[in-house]
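Task: sequence design from structure.
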């Protein structure tokens, strides 16, 4: 028994226009097409297929995926599962974006005490990691075996390797570490160097085994610096512009200073006293060199 396209549309809840389009896409091909009038006709057995197409499309499954699911060897269940996973990834991305926006709004209300201070020459050595920051996931680092590692874990391991190699060479750091944030970046991530201050430059050619090693001597000069109090509601989480960084740039402009953004550094977290009762909190110092 055949149903004309109009009757089939009424029976399935699909429009005639939609049925013609599904035919063109090879998703729901009529059982019979009149060679002269090109009038499409469908069988009763195709009602169930049409209902399945309508349900998958209502769930947001792309047309191409619906067609593949209905062909021999395809799986509507798999198509729906993949769609659900895509929705959950997008929902997580949106949640992170909302948190980031809330952080930016919170950061706009914070006050940063920006200081201008002199700096002495400083020898240093560090190891470089490339931190990937995909839109649909947490920051990661690709390890030596090619597997993705949580960025915080990877940075901790790199820092431990740096300390261990310096100890083996009889070289002792003269202070806490900092992160060199002014390195090359792309749309998907950026390089981060974990650096330690030294009393003297490392020997030429010295390197941490298996890691990209960088070293140098920072010349004497001046830097702008400010503290950011870290917390669970840290306003820089996921935000494109850290409010402390914005405070440094704003202070440079107000004081008519030129800053070198390639020298942006985040120093080792430390405990400081804040508030009338001297409560102890964890603060992260951000600094950037002043040119000239």
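Answer:
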């Amino acid at each position: 028994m055949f149903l004309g396209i109009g009757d089939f549309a009424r029976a399935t809840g699909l429009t005639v226009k939609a049925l013609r389009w599904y035919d063109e896409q090879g998703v729901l091909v009529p059982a019979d097409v009149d060679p002269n009038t090109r009038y499409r006709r469908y069988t009763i057995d195709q009602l169930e297929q049409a209902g399945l197409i309508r349900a998958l499309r209502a769930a947001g499954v792309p047309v191409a995926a619906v067609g593949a699911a209905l062909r021999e060897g395809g799986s509507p269940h798999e198509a729906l599962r993949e769609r659900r996973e895509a929705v959950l990834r997008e929902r997580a991305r949106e949640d992170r974006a909302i948190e980031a926006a809330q952080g930016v709004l919170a950061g706009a209300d914070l006050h940063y005490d920006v200081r201008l201070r002199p700096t002495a020459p400083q020898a240093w050595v560090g190891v470089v990691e490339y931190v990937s920051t995909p839109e649909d996931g947490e920051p990661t680092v690709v390890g030596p075996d090619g597997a993705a590692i949580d960025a915080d874990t990877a940075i901790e391991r790199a820092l431990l390797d740096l300390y261990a190699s310096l100890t083996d060479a009889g070289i002792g750091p003269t202070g806490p570490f900092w992160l060199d944030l002014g390195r090359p970046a792309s749309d998907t991530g950026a390089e981060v160097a974990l650096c330690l201050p030294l009393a003297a430059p490392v020997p030429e050619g010295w390197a941490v085994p298996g890691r990209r090693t960088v070293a140098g001597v920072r010349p004497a000069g001046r830097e702008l610096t400010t503290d950011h109090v870290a917390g669970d509601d840290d306003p820089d989480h996921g935000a494109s512009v850290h409010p402390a960084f914005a405070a440094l740039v704003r202070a440079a402009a107000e004081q008519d200073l030129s800053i070198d953004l390639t020298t942006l550094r985040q120093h080792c977290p430390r405990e400081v006293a804040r508030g009338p009762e001297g409560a102890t909190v964890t603060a992260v110092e951000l600094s950037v060199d002043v040119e000239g």
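The longest helix spans residues 76-108.
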